[in-house]
């Protein structure tokens, strides 16, 4: 593949995004791909150089974090995109926005990455007291950019969930930024009369190195602790003054990869105190070298995922709790040595090779979906697509019919069929679209599932035969039911378009069992369609189990059937797996959940 990276500030190696771009580009080239870089103020092979863009106030604040912005030169960007197979934007700024627009005009597939956490911007601007308010605004602004690319690389499941909370209409691919194979477990070789503690990270407000300094100042081992703070950034002077004031033995430094590995390997403990992290690759690198971490349990950080138990977590911004955890590990050397091995083993799933393999898969999915979109624009494709998207007039008829008939059906189900709905509150846990699934056991069970979601409209899927039946067919069509595909081309366009609907916030309904078997009390084998849509659109499955229960009449001994719809909790796809693995896992989990809803 010919892959084009669009990234501001590629020359600065002091932040995780740039380091990720360098590592991914190198690994992709080793695997035979051509990687072109579009960036500012840097010259080199396969680099297309843009000028730096000065933005009043913003550029001055960003410069303190060693960040600059590229000026979007359309001519240079177009040159870089000639003959490309896919364009990948790493930052949601002007150069990326323009590049995505040009790529679409040139008919080139696009992907993006969410590396810039809004909370980092807010902290960097000195507005951490108003972090929640301003972060929401930035998430909303970024959404305008990300909705233009279907496939998004998320470095952690944490940030994928944050995007889901903020209703981003994308397919998420959780791919670690990956650790280099050079970071390996090696026992400490340098003998020291002090305990060696380390944190790696930019000297920035959100990284909270100050909490570590305060924790050490409270410790009974204060005079026996040497702290290394590896990194660079705007708060260095402030941290140096605090260390001097608290009389802490600390070394500040920025290390080459080789020196950093040696430094990590000769530590007793690794501390990560950041309030905000999309992943914290530095923490995984320390773990890979066999260091036991002590991590802040911040809700705006992905880093707590690396802790194997509570002993490696401390209360965010709490120096006393951090002090207690540090002292525990220093006093229990044997247990620390045992855990070092376990932590080193836990890092194996974050290798750079594994990450780049997943990244390639994401790019291939983007290319495949791009081709599906092109097929949908052919004469035959348009005809197939129309069965999903419908025309404007027909859409209006569907809405009128839906909201006129459904209230009547609601009364019929309640008083004639004695239908009850349990746990409807589980729907409130879903932000945006979802795939509803239910067992197929009643002539009106699609209506019943629609009533679960009402007043939200559900997009039903059904067999083509049902849409052509006398009397029933026109009613089914007026509910907006989409016929399931019968050919390879229909299949491709169907899933592409249905997944778009789910990403855009629609509820889509499937009967994973396929055929209707009236009052069947056992679940039949599930087909894959519903779970493919959930994975391809990064939306949850909501299981609905239709149960029939015997109920004695109020008068006499007559037994009636009570129909109960039990709504299960939403189940999200595992974004860290490839599409096939995620589908099979979600299908299995859904079958188990449906069985539990009897």
Automatic annotation (TrEMBL):
Domain Phospholipid/glycerol acyltransferase: from-to ranges: 434-549
SUPFAM superfamilies tied to this protein: Glycerol-3-phosphate (1)-acyltransferase (SSF69593), UDP-Glycosyltransferase/glycogen phosphorylase (SSF53756)
Tree of life domain: Bacteria
TM segment ranges: 393-412
CDD domains cross-referenced by the UniProt entry: LPLAT_AGPAT-like
UniProt-recorded Gene Ontology molecular function terms: acyltransferase activity; glycosyltransferase activity
Gene3D superfamilies given in the database record: Glycogen Phosphorylase B
InterPro entries, per the entry: Glyco_trans_1, Glyco_trans_4-like_N, Glycosyltransferase_grp1, Plipid/glycerol_acylTrfase
Keywords for this protein: Membrane, Transferase, Transmembrane, Transmembrane helix
Protein name, UniProt field: Glycosyl transferase group 1
């Amino acid at each position: 593949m010919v892959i084009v990276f669009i990234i501001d500030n590629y020359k600065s190696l002091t932040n995780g995004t740039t380091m990720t771009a360098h590592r991914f580009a190198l690994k992709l080239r080793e695997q035979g791909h051509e990687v072109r870089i579009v960036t500012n103020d840097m010259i080199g092979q396969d680099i297309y150089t843009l000028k730096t863009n000065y933005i009043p106030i913003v550029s001055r604040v960003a410069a303190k974090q060693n960040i600059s912005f590229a000026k979007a030169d359309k001519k240079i960007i177009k040159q870089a995109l000639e003959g490309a197979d896919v364009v990948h934007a790493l930052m949601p700024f002007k150069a990326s926005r323009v590049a995505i627009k040009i790529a679409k005009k040139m008919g080139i597939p696009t992907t993006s990455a969410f590396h810039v956490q809004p909370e980092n911007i807010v902290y960097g601007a000195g507005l951490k007291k108003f972090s929640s308010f301003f972060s929401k605004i930035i998430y909303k602004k970024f959404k305008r950019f990300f909705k233009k690319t279907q496939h998004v690389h998320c470095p952690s499941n944490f940030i994928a969930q944050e995007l889901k909370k903020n209703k981003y209409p994308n397919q998420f691919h959780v791919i670690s930024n990956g650790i280099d194979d050079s970071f390996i477990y090696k026992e400490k070789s340098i003998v020291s009369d002090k305990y060696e503690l380390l944190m790696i990270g930019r000297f920035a407000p959100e990284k909270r190195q100050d909490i570590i300094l305060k924790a050490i100042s409270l410790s009974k081992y204060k005079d026996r602790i040497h702290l290394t703070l590896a990194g660079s950034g705007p708060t260095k002077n402030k941290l140096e003054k605090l260390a001097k004031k608290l009389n802490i033995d600390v070394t500040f430094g920025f290390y080459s990869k080789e020196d950093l590995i040696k430094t990590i390997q000769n530590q007793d403990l690794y501390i990560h105190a950041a309030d905000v992290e999309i992943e914290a690759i530095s923490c995984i690198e320390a773990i890979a070298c066999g260091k036991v971490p002590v991590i802040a349990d911040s809700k705006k950080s992905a880093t707590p995922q690396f802790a194997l138990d509570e002993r490696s977590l401390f209360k965010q911004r709490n120096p006393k709790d951090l002090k207690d955890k540090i002292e525990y590990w220093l006093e229990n050397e044997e247990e620390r040595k045992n855990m070092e091995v376990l932590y080193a083993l836990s890092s194996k799933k974050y290798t750079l090779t594994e990450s780049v393999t997943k990244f390639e898969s994401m790019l291939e999915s983007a290319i495949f979906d791009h081709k599906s979109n092109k097929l949908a624009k052919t004469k035959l494709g348009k005809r197939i697509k129309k069965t999903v998207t419908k025309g404007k007039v027909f859409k209006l008829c569907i809405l009128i019919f839906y909201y006129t008939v459904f209230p009547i059906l609601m009364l019929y189900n309640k008083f004639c069929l004695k239908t009850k709905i349990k746990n409807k509150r589980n729907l409130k846990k879903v932000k945006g679209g979802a795939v509803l699934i239910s067992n197929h056991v009643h002539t009106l069970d699609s209506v019943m599932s629609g009533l679960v979601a009402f007043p939200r409209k559900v997009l039903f899927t059904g067999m083509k035969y049902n849409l052509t039946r006398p009397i029933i067919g026109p009613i089914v069509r007026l509910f907006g039911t989409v016929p399931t595909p019968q050919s390879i081309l229909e299949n491709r366009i169907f899933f592409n378009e249905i997944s778009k609907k789910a990403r855009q916030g629609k509820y889509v309904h499937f009967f994973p069992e396929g055929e209707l078997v009236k009052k069947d009390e056992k679940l039949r084998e599930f087909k894959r369609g519903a779970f493919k849509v959930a994975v391809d659109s990064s939306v949850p499955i909501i299981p609905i189990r239709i149960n029939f229960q015997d109920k004695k009449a109020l008068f006499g001994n007559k037994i009636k059937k009570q129909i109960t719809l039990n709504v299960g909790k939403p189940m999200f796809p595992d974004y860290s797996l490839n599409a096939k693995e995620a589908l099979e896992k979600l299908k299995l989990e859904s079958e188990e959940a449906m069985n539990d809803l009897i």
